[in-house]
């Protein structure tokens, strides 16, 4: 058995949590590493395989868990696109041969795969805001194009959709039987992989996928900041964060040595190899069980991979400590969080529109939102990651609304900075909506440490 197979088998054998309680150590372990129970040295290959998110047995999740007297009001879903082909090639090597057509007799498979293809191939009519209309509706190249969604990526989101359907539609009746287009809010960036991921999720989710009821808006910014993207202080945080990253890399002599060795193997200058971001391509090899590339000078191998991945983990650790990324995230995530609480507040007023919102996005979208919410321990968004905000009404006290936050099926509500330890003071298993609103309207700016209490001031603070 080759190494990759052994590792893939290992990840399939990792027990999926069946715990009923979201705070159970097992379920938390997969999402939020626990410094007490997890070994201090994280295993780079184990981490990488979690990132791949290879579909296996159906996943248990904590979405929709609430006492009987709670009514589900609305759901806001942020996803990362599913498994994709690399965005970069390792110079002077053959790129991995991965087939991006969708076929039933190839793994991973989902029972709705053929129906999805046949439905998509009939075309969409006028279901998208320009320029989304020019994008293909499903992956369809015998040799994947750069960044193209793979069959794995489609299956991951069909699964997400099916899971959310069982919970939100079948169990909680979020949408009425005669639901209409107004009840969905759909938004995606302009990449084929995000649009296709959103379509696959909806195909798994909706009881009838009727193009007349689907309208995807186009979001030009990966931060989903719409009309509020201009924020100079956010950019300053980002520049400082990039400087931190650069300095950490320079300190890692083993990393430099590894890039040097790999550059020799592929026979290009080290700088060029590094600029080609080889980890992106190597992850694709790993996730798809395709051996790393070789040249007549030798092979890129698992030891190279481990060094680069270990550095990535180290980088994430330092990123949390130094908090520059947190500053970037608080400002970067404000517009989308503000939009979300606006939508929630309208729902609390009894409006029946936009009960289900879906934002089909990227790691660079989810990561700042997680960080801004105070979930800095959360793992980097894997392929097809999902971050969900649920809004609930207490039927016994109809004026009280509460939220739950779930990341990849794990309830992280009480890990957020706006609701930390709330459950110790309150018997309710969720967080008052006011906490989230107060955080987004004011406290997230206070957390930046200046004197600003609103987005505009925080973005234009002098002398930062
Ligand atoms: C990985 O690939 C090897 C051959 O390249 C194959 O024998 C093995 O079955 C594959 N493993 C998995 C888990 O697909
Ligand atoms: C926040 O949302 C409100 C509407 O809910 C809007 O009027 C305001 O401009 C938004 N602010 C930002 C910075 O996006």
Automatic annotation (TrEMBL):
The topology of this chain with respect to the membrane is: Single-pass type II membrane protein
Kindly list the GO CC terms recorded for this protein: Golgi membrane
Q: Which residues form the signal peptide?
A: 1-19
Q: Which GO biological process annotations does it have?
A: chondroitin sulfate proteoglycan biosynthetic process; glycosaminoglycan biosynthetic process
Q: Which GO terms describe its molecular function?
A: phosphatase activity
Q: How does it assemble?
A: Interacts with B3GAT3; the interaction increases the 2-phosphoxylose phosphatase activity of PXYLP1 during completion of linkage region formation in a B3GAT3-mediated manner.
Its function, per the record, reads: Responsible for the 2-O-dephosphorylation of xylose in the glycosaminoglycan-protein linkage region of proteoglycans thereby regulating the amount of mature glycosaminoglycan (GAG) chains. Sulfated glycosaminoglycans (GAGs), including heparan sulfate and chondroitin sulfate, are synthesized on the so-called common GAG-protein linkage region (GlcUAbeta1-3Galbeta1-3Galbeta1-4Xylbeta1-O-Ser) of core proteins, which is formed by the stepwise addition of monosaccharide residues by the respective specific glycosyltransferases.
State the similarity comment. Answer: Belongs to the histidine acid phosphatase family.
Q: What is this protein called?
A: 2-phosphoxylose phosphatase 1
- List the source organism: Mandrillus leucophaeus (Drill)
């Amino acid at each position: 058995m080759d190494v990759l197979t052994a590792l893939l088998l290992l990840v399939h054998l990792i027990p999926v949590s069946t715990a009923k309680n979201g705070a159970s150590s097992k379920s938390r372990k997969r999402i939020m590493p626990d410094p007490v129970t997890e070994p201090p040295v994280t295993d780079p290959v184990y981490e990488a395989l979690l990132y791949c998110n290879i579909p296996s047995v159906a996943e248990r999740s904590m979405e929709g868990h609430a006492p009987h007297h709670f009514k589900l009001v609305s759901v806001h879903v942020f996803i990362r696109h599913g498994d994709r082909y690399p965005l970069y090639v390792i110079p002077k090597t053959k790129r991995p041969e991965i087939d991006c057509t969708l076929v039933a007799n190839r793994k991973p498979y989902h029972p709705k795969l053929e129906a999805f293809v046949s439905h998509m191939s009939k075309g969409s009519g006028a279901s998208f805001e320009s320029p989304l209309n020019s994008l293909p509706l499903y992956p369809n190249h015998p040799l994947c194009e750069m960044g193209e969604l793979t069959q794995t990526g489609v299956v991951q989101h069909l699964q997400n959709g099916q899971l959310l359907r069982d919970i939100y539609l079948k169990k909680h009746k979020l949408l009425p039987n005669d639901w209409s287009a107004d009840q969905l809010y759909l938004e995606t960036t302009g990449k084929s992989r995000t649009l296709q991921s959103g379509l696959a999720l909806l195909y798994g989710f909706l009881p009838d996928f009727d193009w007349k009821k689907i309208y995807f808006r186009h979001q030009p910014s990966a931060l989903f900041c719409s009309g509020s993207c201009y924020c100079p202080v956010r950019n300053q945080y980002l520049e400082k964060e990039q400087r931190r990253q650069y300095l950490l890399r320079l300190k890692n002599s083993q990393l430099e040595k590894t890039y040097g060795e790999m550059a020799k193997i592929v026979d290009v200058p080290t700088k060029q190899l590094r600029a080609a971001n080889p980890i992106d391509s190597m992850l694709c090899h790993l996730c798809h069980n395709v051996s790393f590339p070789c040249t007549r000078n030798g092979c890129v191998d698992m030891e190279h991979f481990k060094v680069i991945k270990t550095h990535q983990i180290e980088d994430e650790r330092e990123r949390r400590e130094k908090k520059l990324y947190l500053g970037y995230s608080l400002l970067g995530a404000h517009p989308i969080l503000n939009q979300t609480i606006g939508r929630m507040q309208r729902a609390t007023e009894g409006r029946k529109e936009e009960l289900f919102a879906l934002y089909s996005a990227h790691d660079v979208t989810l990561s700042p939102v997680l960080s801004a919410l105070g979930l800095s321990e959360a793992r980097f968004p894997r392929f097809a990651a999902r971050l969900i905000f649920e809004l609930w009404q207490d039927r016994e006290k109809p004026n009280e609304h509460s939220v739950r936050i779930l990341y990849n099926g794990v309830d992280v509500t009480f890990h957020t900075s706006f609701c930390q330890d709330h459950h110790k003071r309150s018997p309710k298993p969720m967080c008052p909506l006011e906490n989230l609103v107060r955080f987004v309207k004011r406290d997230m700016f206070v957390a930046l440490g200046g004197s600003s209490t609103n987005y505009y001031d925080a973005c234009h603070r002098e002398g930062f």
